[in-house]
User: Which sequence fits this backbone?
């Protein structure tokens, strides 16, 4: 069982998320971000026991905080990742840090 945190996303020209910034949670530490495609992210989270949460930068406290649980959803147009829908825009995948400015 592996725990992950997702801190950011990359989007295409249509503003659709294509990639995710995944961090592996280790005992006492969290890895640097690794860019995972949508397909890679879905595969990782479909492995029994693996789980992920959003990881949000708290600007007021200058530290990371745990956000919402991320799940694989099998929608009408295929599988995708979705965070717990709780009507809080600040902790949903769509509103994580936009890493498009980082060269892959």
Assistant:
């Amino acid at each position: 069982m592996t725990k992950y945190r997702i801190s950011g996303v990359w989007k295409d020209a249509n503003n659709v998320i294509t990639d995710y910034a995944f961090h592996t949670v280790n005992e006492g530490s969290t890895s640097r971000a690794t860019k995972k495609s949508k397909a890679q992210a879905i595969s990782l989270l479909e492995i029994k026991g693996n789980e992920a949460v959003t990881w949000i930068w708290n600007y007021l406290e200058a530290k990371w905080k745990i956000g919402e649980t991320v799940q694989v959803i099998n929608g009408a147009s295929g599988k995708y990742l979705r965070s717990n829908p709780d009507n809080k825009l600040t902790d949903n995948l769509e509103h994580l840090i936009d890493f498009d400015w980082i060269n892959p």
Notes: Helices lie at 38-46. The chain has a mean pLDDT of 90. The longest helix spans residues 38-46. Strands lie at 3-11, 17-26, 29-30, 34-37, 51-58, 63-75, 78-83, 97-98.
